[in-house]
Protein backbone atom coordinates (compact mmCIF):
# COMPACT_ATOMS: atom_id res chain seq x y z
CA UNK A 1 0.00 0.00 0.00
CA UNK A 2 1.28 3.49 -0.78
CA UNK A 3 0.14 7.03 -1.32
CA UNK A 4 0.22 6.24 -5.02
CA UNK A 5 -2.71 4.01 -4.22
CA UNK A 6 -4.13 6.89 -2.20
CA UNK A 7 -3.86 9.03 -5.32
CA UNK A 8 -6.17 6.63 -7.12
CA UNK A 9 -8.51 6.58 -4.14
CA UNK A 10 -8.57 10.35 -3.67
CA UNK A 11 -10.75 10.14 -0.54
CA UNK A 12 -7.66 9.23 1.50
CA UNK A 13 -5.90 12.42 0.41
CA UNK A 14 -8.92 14.73 0.42
CA UNK A 15 -10.60 13.57 3.63
CA UNK A 16 -8.10 14.95 6.21
CA UNK A 17 -8.01 18.56 4.92
CA UNK A 18 -11.75 18.47 4.19
CA UNK A 19 -12.44 17.28 7.74
CA UNK A 20 -10.20 20.09 9.03
CA UNK A 21 -12.28 22.62 7.07
CA UNK A 22 -15.52 21.17 8.53
CA UNK A 23 -13.95 21.44 11.99
CA UNK A 24 -12.99 25.08 11.46
CA UNK A 25 -16.51 25.97 10.31
CA UNK A 26 -18.36 24.03 13.03
CA UNK A 27 -16.08 24.73 16.02
CA UNK A 28 -17.89 26.47 18.85
CA UNK A 29 -21.32 25.97 17.25
CA UNK A 30 -24.29 23.71 17.96
CA UNK A 31 -25.12 22.22 14.54
CA UNK A 32 -28.67 21.28 13.64
CA UNK A 33 -29.69 17.94 12.18
CA UNK A 34 -28.12 18.56 8.78
CA UNK A 35 -24.98 20.00 10.37
CA UNK A 36 -24.61 16.99 12.65
CA UNK A 37 -24.91 14.68 9.65
CA UNK A 38 -22.15 16.59 7.84
CA UNK A 39 -19.93 16.60 10.93
CA UNK A 40 -20.59 12.91 11.48
CA UNK A 41 -19.67 12.04 7.90
CA UNK A 42 -16.51 14.13 8.16
CA UNK A 43 -15.64 12.41 11.44
CA UNK A 44 -16.01 8.93 9.95
CA UNK A 45 -14.01 9.95 6.87
CA UNK A 46 -11.24 11.39 9.07
CA UNK A 47 -11.06 8.20 11.16
CA UNK A 48 -10.84 6.01 8.06
CA UNK A 49 -8.25 8.29 6.47
CA UNK A 50 -6.19 8.46 9.67
CA UNK A 51 -5.91 4.72 9.95
CA UNK A 52 -5.33 4.39 6.19
CA UNK A 53 -2.35 6.76 6.31
CA UNK A 54 -1.10 5.11 9.50
CA UNK A 55 -1.16 1.85 7.55
CA UNK A 56 0.84 3.44 4.71
CA UNK A 57 3.49 4.71 7.12
CA UNK A 58 3.42 1.39 8.95
CA UNK A 59 3.94 -0.46 5.67
CA UNK A 60 7.12 1.51 5.17
CA UNK A 61 8.62 0.12 8.39
CA UNK A 62 7.31 -3.43 7.89
CA UNK A 63 5.56 -6.07 10.01
CA UNK A 64 5.12 -6.34 13.00
CA UNK A 65 6.00 -2.64 13.33
CA UNK A 66 3.09 -1.86 11.01
CA UNK A 67 0.50 -3.45 13.28
CA UNK A 68 2.05 -1.66 16.27
CA UNK A 69 1.90 1.77 14.63
CA UNK A 70 -1.66 1.21 13.46
CA UNK A 71 -2.72 0.21 16.97
CA UNK A 72 -1.08 3.31 18.49
CA UNK A 73 -2.76 5.60 15.94
CA UNK A 74 -6.15 4.07 16.70
CA UNK A 75 -5.55 4.47 20.44
CA UNK A 76 -4.73 8.17 20.01
CA UNK A 77 -8.10 8.57 18.30
CA UNK A 78 -9.81 6.60 21.06
CA UNK A 79 -8.25 8.67 23.84
CA UNK A 80 -9.19 11.88 22.05
CA UNK A 81 -12.80 10.77 21.70
CA UNK A 82 -13.05 9.66 25.33
CA UNK A 83 -11.53 12.83 26.78
CA UNK A 84 -13.58 15.18 24.59
CA UNK A 85 -16.80 13.38 25.45
CA UNK A 86 -15.94 13.38 29.16
CA UNK A 87 -15.18 17.10 29.06
CA UNK A 88 -18.08 18.26 26.91
CA UNK A 89 -20.62 15.48 27.36
CA UNK A 90 -23.74 15.77 29.42
CA UNK A 91 -24.87 13.49 32.23
CA UNK A 92 -22.70 10.97 34.05
CA UNK A 93 -19.48 10.24 32.12
CA UNK A 94 -17.64 8.51 34.96
CA UNK A 95 -17.92 5.09 33.27
CA UNK A 96 -17.25 6.25 29.70
CA UNK A 97 -13.56 5.29 29.71
CA UNK A 98 -14.33 1.89 31.22
CA UNK A 99 -17.13 1.16 28.77
CA UNK A 100 -15.04 2.21 25.78
CA UNK A 101 -11.97 0.20 26.78
CA UNK A 102 -14.07 -2.86 27.63
CA UNK A 103 -15.89 -2.55 24.30
CA UNK A 104 -12.55 -2.32 22.48
CA UNK A 105 -11.37 -5.50 24.19
CA UNK A 106 -14.54 -7.40 23.27
CA UNK A 107 -14.49 -6.12 19.69
CA UNK A 108 -10.88 -7.13 19.18
CA UNK A 109 -10.62 -10.51 20.94
CA UNK A 110 -14.05 -11.70 19.76
CA UNK A 111 -15.19 -9.62 16.78
CA UNK A 112 -11.93 -9.14 14.85
CA UNK A 113 -10.43 -12.49 15.84
CA UNK A 114 -13.70 -14.29 15.08
CA UNK A 115 -14.21 -12.85 11.61
CA UNK A 116 -10.52 -13.34 10.74
CA UNK A 117 -10.70 -17.02 11.69
CA UNK A 118 -13.95 -17.59 9.80
CA UNK A 119 -12.66 -15.87 6.63
CA UNK A 120 -9.23 -17.50 6.79
CA UNK A 121 -10.53 -20.99 7.57
CA UNK A 122 -13.30 -20.94 4.98
CA UNK A 123 -10.91 -19.82 2.25
CA UNK A 124 -7.93 -21.95 3.24
CA UNK A 125 -9.50 -24.90 5.15
CA UNK A 126 -7.76 -23.91 8.41
CA UNK A 127 -6.63 -20.58 9.86
CA UNK A 128 -2.93 -21.00 10.62
CA UNK A 129 -0.99 -18.77 13.03
CA UNK A 130 1.90 -18.84 15.50
CA UNK A 131 0.69 -19.90 18.98
CA UNK A 132 3.87 -18.64 20.66
CA UNK A 133 3.49 -15.04 19.53
CA UNK A 134 -0.29 -15.00 19.71
CA UNK A 135 -0.26 -16.66 23.14
CA UNK A 136 2.08 -14.04 24.58
CA UNK A 137 -0.14 -11.30 23.16
CA UNK A 138 -3.26 -12.88 24.67
CA UNK A 139 -1.55 -13.27 28.05
CA UNK A 140 -0.65 -9.57 28.04
CA UNK A 141 -4.21 -8.59 27.13
CA UNK A 142 -5.55 -10.76 29.97
CA UNK A 143 -3.16 -9.23 32.50
CA UNK A 144 -3.96 -5.68 31.39
CA UNK A 145 -7.71 -6.26 31.40
CA UNK A 146 -7.64 -7.93 34.81
CA UNK A 147 -5.49 -5.23 36.40
CA UNK A 148 -7.35 -2.20 35.06
CA UNK A 149 -10.95 -3.40 34.56
CA UNK A 150 -11.50 -6.22 37.07
CA UNK A 151 -9.39 -5.26 40.10
CA UNK A 152 -11.09 -1.84 40.63
CA UNK A 153 -14.40 -3.64 41.18
CA UNK A 154 -12.90 -5.41 44.22
CA UNK A 155 -10.69 -2.79 45.86
CA UNK A 156 -11.91 -1.42 49.19
CA UNK A 157 -9.93 1.78 49.71
CA UNK A 158 -12.52 3.86 47.84
CA UNK A 159 -16.28 3.54 47.50
CA UNK A 160 -17.50 2.08 44.23
CA UNK A 161 -15.55 0.51 41.33
CA UNK A 162 -12.86 3.18 41.43
CA UNK A 163 -9.17 3.37 42.20
CA UNK A 164 -7.67 5.76 44.70
CA UNK A 165 -5.09 8.18 43.32
CA UNK A 166 -2.16 5.95 44.26
CA UNK A 167 -3.89 2.83 42.94
CA UNK A 168 -4.66 4.55 39.63
CA UNK A 169 -1.03 5.70 39.35
CA UNK A 170 0.18 2.15 39.97
CA UNK A 171 -2.24 0.73 37.39
CA UNK A 172 -1.12 3.32 34.84
CA UNK A 173 2.59 2.59 35.37
CA UNK A 174 2.00 -1.17 35.37
CA UNK A 175 -0.01 -0.90 32.15
CA UNK A 176 2.73 1.05 30.42
CA UNK A 177 5.34 -1.43 31.66
CA UNK A 178 3.39 -4.43 30.36
CA UNK A 179 2.79 -2.75 27.02
CA UNK A 180 6.46 -1.75 26.70
CA UNK A 181 7.64 -5.28 27.50
CA UNK A 182 5.34 -6.70 24.85
CA UNK A 183 6.50 -4.18 22.25
CA UNK A 184 10.14 -5.13 22.88
CA UNK A 185 9.21 -8.81 22.59
CA UNK A 186 7.23 -8.24 19.38
CA UNK A 187 9.67 -5.98 17.58
CA UNK A 188 13.12 -6.87 18.96
CA UNK A 189 13.60 -10.01 21.00
CA UNK A 190 11.22 -12.44 19.26
CA UNK A 191 10.01 -10.67 16.14
CA UNK A 192 9.85 -13.96 14.19
CA UNK A 193 7.02 -15.17 16.45
CA UNK A 194 4.76 -12.45 15.01
CA UNK A 195 5.43 -12.93 11.30
CA UNK A 196 2.89 -14.72 9.08
CA UNK A 197 3.10 -18.52 9.09
CA UNK A 198 2.96 -20.60 5.91
CA UNK A 199 1.13 -23.89 5.48
CA UNK A 200 4.20 -25.90 6.46
CA UNK A 201 4.51 -23.95 9.69
CA UNK A 202 7.60 -22.00 8.70
CA UNK A 203 7.78 -18.38 9.77
CA UNK A 204 9.04 -15.59 7.64
CA UNK A 205 8.46 -13.24 4.74
CA UNK A 206 7.11 -14.12 1.33
CA UNK A 207 7.82 -10.69 -0.12
CA UNK A 208 10.62 -8.12 0.08
CA UNK A 209 9.62 -6.49 3.35
CA UNK A 210 8.19 -9.58 5.00
CA UNK A 211 4.67 -8.45 5.83
CA UNK A 212 2.61 -10.20 3.21
CA UNK A 213 1.67 -6.97 1.41
CA UNK A 214 2.94 -5.29 -1.74
CA UNK A 215 6.40 -3.76 -1.49
CA UNK A 216 6.65 -0.69 0.79
CA UNK A 217 6.14 2.85 -0.52
CA UNK A 218 9.04 5.28 -1.07
CA UNK A 219 10.09 7.46 1.86
CA UNK A 220 8.57 10.60 0.29
CA UNK A 221 5.14 9.02 0.00
CA UNK A 222 5.36 7.74 3.57
CA UNK A 223 6.20 11.28 4.78
CA UNK A 224 3.18 12.68 2.92
CA UNK A 225 0.98 10.11 4.63
CA UNK A 226 2.57 11.00 7.97
CA UNK A 227 1.55 14.64 7.49
CA UNK A 228 -1.99 13.69 6.42
CA UNK A 229 -2.19 11.38 9.45
CA UNK A 230 -1.45 14.31 11.77
CA UNK A 231 -4.15 16.45 10.14
CA UNK A 232 -6.65 13.60 10.36
CA UNK A 233 -5.96 12.98 14.06
CA UNK A 234 -6.48 16.66 14.93
CA UNK A 235 -9.72 16.67 12.91
CA UNK A 236 -11.00 13.52 14.62
CA UNK A 237 -10.53 14.89 18.13
CA UNK A 238 -12.04 18.28 17.26
CA UNK A 239 -15.03 16.88 15.35
CA UNK A 240 -15.72 14.45 18.20
CA UNK A 241 -16.07 17.40 20.55
CA UNK A 242 -18.48 19.10 18.13
CA UNK A 243 -20.50 15.90 17.72
CA UNK A 244 -20.46 14.78 21.36
CA UNK A 245 -23.89 16.12 22.28
CA UNK A 246 -25.48 14.59 19.18
CA UNK A 247 -24.04 11.15 20.01
CA UNK A 248 -25.33 11.22 23.57
CA UNK A 249 -28.70 12.65 22.54
CA UNK A 250 -29.14 9.86 19.98
CA UNK A 251 -28.41 7.22 22.62
CA UNK A 252 -30.83 8.87 25.06
CA UNK A 253 -33.60 9.20 22.48
CA UNK A 254 -33.37 5.48 21.69
CA UNK A 255 -33.64 4.65 25.39
CA UNK A 256 -30.30 2.84 25.41
CA UNK A 257 -27.93 2.58 28.40
CA UNK A 258 -25.05 5.05 28.73
CA UNK A 259 -22.61 2.19 28.09
CA UNK A 260 -23.71 2.18 24.44
CA UNK A 261 -21.83 5.48 23.95
CA UNK A 262 -18.59 3.64 24.72
CA UNK A 263 -19.53 0.85 22.33
CA UNK A 264 -20.18 3.39 19.55
CA UNK A 265 -16.77 5.01 20.10
CA UNK A 266 -14.97 1.66 20.05
CA UNK A 267 -16.83 0.45 16.95
CA UNK A 268 -16.00 3.69 15.17
CA UNK A 269 -12.27 3.66 15.82
CA UNK A 270 -11.82 -0.09 15.28
CA UNK A 271 -13.78 -0.40 12.04
CA UNK A 272 -10.72 0.28 9.82
CA UNK A 273 -8.64 -2.23 11.76
CA UNK A 274 -11.40 -4.80 11.31
CA UNK A 275 -11.29 -4.26 7.56
CA UNK A 276 -7.49 -4.58 7.54
CA UNK A 277 -7.69 -7.81 9.56
CA UNK A 278 -10.21 -9.33 7.14
CA UNK A 279 -8.02 -8.40 4.16
CA UNK A 280 -5.06 -10.12 5.83
CA UNK A 281 -7.13 -13.24 6.53
CA UNK A 282 -8.22 -13.41 2.88
CA UNK A 283 -4.51 -13.53 1.96
CA UNK A 284 -3.98 -16.38 4.45
CA UNK A 285 -2.11 -14.05 6.85
CA UNK A 286 -4.18 -14.72 9.96
CA UNK A 287 -1.15 -13.97 12.11
CA UNK A 288 -1.25 -10.40 10.83
CA UNK A 289 -4.97 -10.27 11.69
CA UNK A 290 -4.17 -11.44 15.22
CA UNK A 291 -1.35 -8.89 15.51
CA UNK A 292 -3.88 -6.18 14.68
CA UNK A 293 -6.55 -7.53 17.03
CA UNK A 294 -4.49 -8.23 20.13
CA UNK A 295 -2.21 -5.26 19.50
CA UNK A 296 -5.24 -2.96 19.43
CA UNK A 297 -6.60 -4.53 22.62
CA UNK A 298 -3.28 -4.00 24.38
CA UNK A 299 -2.88 -0.44 23.15
CA UNK A 300 -6.48 0.34 24.07
CA UNK A 301 -5.78 -0.62 27.68
CA UNK A 302 -2.05 -0.06 28.06
CA UNK A 303 -2.08 3.43 26.53
CA UNK A 304 -5.63 4.63 27.13
CA UNK A 305 -5.72 3.99 30.87
CA UNK A 306 -2.48 5.92 31.58
CA UNK A 307 -3.68 8.78 29.36
CA UNK A 308 -7.05 8.90 31.12
CA UNK A 309 -5.26 8.70 34.48
CA UNK A 310 -3.30 11.84 33.60
CA UNK A 311 -6.41 13.54 32.21
CA UNK A 312 -8.33 12.74 35.41
CA UNK A 313 -6.16 15.31 37.21
CA UNK A 314 -8.24 18.09 35.69
CA UNK A 315 -11.42 16.16 34.85
CA UNK A 316 -14.29 16.61 37.27
CA UNK A 317 -15.97 13.66 38.96
CA UNK A 318 -14.90 10.07 39.71
CA UNK A 319 -13.33 7.68 37.20
CA UNK A 320 -15.10 4.32 37.46
CA UNK A 321 -12.97 1.60 35.89
CA UNK A 322 -14.29 -1.59 37.51
CA UNK A 323 -16.58 -3.60 35.24
CA UNK A 324 -19.95 -4.88 36.45
CA UNK A 325 -20.74 -8.62 37.00
CA UNK A 326 -22.27 -9.09 33.55
CA UNK A 327 -19.21 -7.61 31.85
CA UNK A 328 -16.96 -9.74 34.05
CA UNK A 329 -18.74 -12.94 32.95
CA UNK A 330 -18.37 -11.97 29.29
CA UNK A 331 -14.69 -11.16 29.77
CA UNK A 332 -13.92 -14.45 31.53
CA UNK A 333 -15.81 -16.47 28.89
CA UNK A 334 -13.98 -14.63 26.13
CA UNK A 335 -10.54 -15.22 27.65
CA UNK A 336 -11.23 -18.94 28.21
CA UNK A 337 -12.38 -19.38 24.62
CA UNK A 338 -9.41 -17.34 23.39
CA UNK A 339 -6.93 -19.61 25.17
CA UNK A 340 -8.53 -22.69 23.63
CA UNK A 341 -8.41 -21.03 20.21
CA UNK A 342 -4.78 -19.93 20.40
CA UNK A 343 -3.08 -22.99 21.90
CA UNK A 344 -3.28 -25.33 18.83
CA UNK A 345 -1.85 -22.74 16.40
CA UNK A 346 -4.62 -23.38 13.88
CA UNK A 347 -8.38 -23.00 13.98
CA UNK A 348 -11.50 -24.23 12.19
CA UNK A 349 -14.46 -22.01 11.25
CA UNK A 350 -16.21 -23.28 14.40
CA UNK A 351 -13.68 -21.46 16.59
CA UNK A 352 -14.37 -18.21 14.78
CA UNK A 353 -18.11 -18.80 15.08
CA UNK A 354 -17.82 -19.19 18.86
CA UNK A 355 -16.00 -15.86 19.11
CA UNK A 356 -18.60 -14.16 16.93
CA UNK A 357 -21.46 -15.48 19.08
CA UNK A 358 -19.74 -14.04 22.16
CA UNK A 359 -19.32 -10.75 20.30
CA UNK A 360 -23.01 -10.75 19.35
CA UNK A 361 -23.91 -11.44 23.00
CA UNK A 362 -21.80 -8.47 24.07
CA UNK A 363 -23.54 -6.15 21.60
CA UNK A 364 -27.02 -7.39 22.53
CA UNK A 365 -26.44 -7.24 26.28
CA UNK A 366 -24.90 -3.77 26.02
CA UNK A 367 -28.21 -2.53 24.59
CA UNK A 368 -30.43 -4.74 26.75
CA UNK A 369 -28.59 -5.54 29.99
UniProtKB/TrEMBL annotation:
KW Transmembrane helix (keyword) present: yes
Stretches that traverse the bilayer: 9-28, 34-53, 65-89, 101-122, 134-154, 166-184, 222-240, 260-280, 292-314, 326-343, 350-368
GO cellular component: plasma membrane
InterPro entries reported for this sequence: Alkaline_pH_Ca-Antiporter, NaCa_Exmemb
Keyword terms of this UniProt record: Membrane, Transmembrane, Transmembrane helix
GO molecular function annotation: potassium:proton antiporter activity; sodium:proton antiporter activity
Span of domain Sodium/calcium exchanger membrane region: 34-187, 225-366
Superkingdom of the organism of origin: Bacteria
Topology term for the membrane: Multi-pass membrane protein
Subcellular localization, as worded in the UniProt entry: Membrane
Name of the molecule in the record: Ionic transporter y4hA
Amino acid sequence: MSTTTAGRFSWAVVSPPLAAVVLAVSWGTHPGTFGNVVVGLALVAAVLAAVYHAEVVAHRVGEPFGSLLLAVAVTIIEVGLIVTLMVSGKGDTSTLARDTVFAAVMITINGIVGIAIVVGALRHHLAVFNPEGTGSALATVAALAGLTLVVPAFTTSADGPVFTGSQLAFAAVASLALYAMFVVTQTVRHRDFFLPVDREGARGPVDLDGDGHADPPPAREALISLGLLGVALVAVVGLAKVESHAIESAVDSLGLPEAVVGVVIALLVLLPESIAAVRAAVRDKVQTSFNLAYGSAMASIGLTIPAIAVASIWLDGPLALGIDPLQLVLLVLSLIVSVLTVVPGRAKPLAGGVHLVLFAAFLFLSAAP
